[in-house]
Amino acid sequence: MPCSDLDDALASGKTYADLATQHALFSRLRDEDPVHWCEPAGYRPFWAVTRHADIIEIERQHDRFINKLRTKLLTIEFETKVREAMAGQPMLVRTLPQMDNPDHKAYRALTAAWFQPRQLANLEDRIAGLARQSVDRMLEVGAGGRVFDFVDDVALWYPLRVIMTILGLPEKDEARLLQITQAYFGGSDPEMQRGADLIDATMALVDYFKEVSRDRRQNPRDDVATIIANSTIDGVPIGDLETYSYYIALITAGHDTTSATAAGGLLALIENPAEWRKLKAHPEGVDKAVAEMLRWVSPVKHFFRAATTDYQLRDKTIKAGDFLMMCYPSGNRDAAAFEQPFEFRADRTPNRHLGYGYGIHACIGLHLANLELQILFREIVARVERFELAGPRTWVETAFLGGLKHLPLTVRPA
To answer: Does the domain formed by 3-404 have CATH 3.50.50.60?
Structure first.
């Protein structure tokens, strides 16, 4: 593949919808040019960082490599549309991934306590109830050997209901929020976009959370939505953009990453029956299995950083102002970091996966995501004898965040 074609492929959502193509591309870069200057047509250029150690090296230096200038891969045309829609501002939202310190630290602290293990322990029974309902539904639609879609029937709904519970959002809104979040992270996939682009989806979420915020200021409750609506920093209420952005980040990322991991993790167990049998025999191993699912699926494909000073990375000089794309699926298949990285091992130890990023920008909801995935798979392992693939599985065409789009299965209860 010529270099220009490789660069275009790295930026194309179609690459990430074909796992063989994706991993062949990243394997080549790790072997031949792990810090690769990339100039895909229609995009501002950047360095693609593909080795596990290099990604960590960049992310641990959050003062030298900052977030606010560019967060993810967008075409130049789309970046222009965003500036027009946002009165010159370069981003549709201002969430934790778009912030650097001191703002990042201050805004993260607003809700951090809600996502720590001690607080989540109070929600474990409610999350377990949602997991039971999800498996009940799966066994119902799959009864008698009927084919069902694990993505549509389980993986999309369960994490959405969990994050809605934490935010305190009503059950009646779940279908509406699911439709919007799918469009938000649909990338270039026409089935996921369904006529809406990222700007449309963002504005729809802003409109929804304006009402939530207004309600929580008038009627505060014991939920995260109330905390966000009434937050102050140094005694000053946070701005409207930051308020709506906070909601949007939690409802979208808190849903899609976990959904993608659940579906991709189950497919890995189906395709590796010895690992499924291992979990059936030792269900206490679900915690390690979930970590391996996050490595294997890598639901977040990248985030960007911008260099504030010149920096030497391997044999390349990164210039101040250059952008770097942290390629997480590549880092998670790096043989220098993982033994037999293309093998799915449910009991892999150690497992320094990059599924949640690294450093101060590691996902604020990582403990919640771990907990809800562990609870779901304990329920599945306890109540299912086996799954069988029942049709073609497909992946979302997105270079940013996503996973399986369809996973048709049959199920035999335990």
So the answer is: no
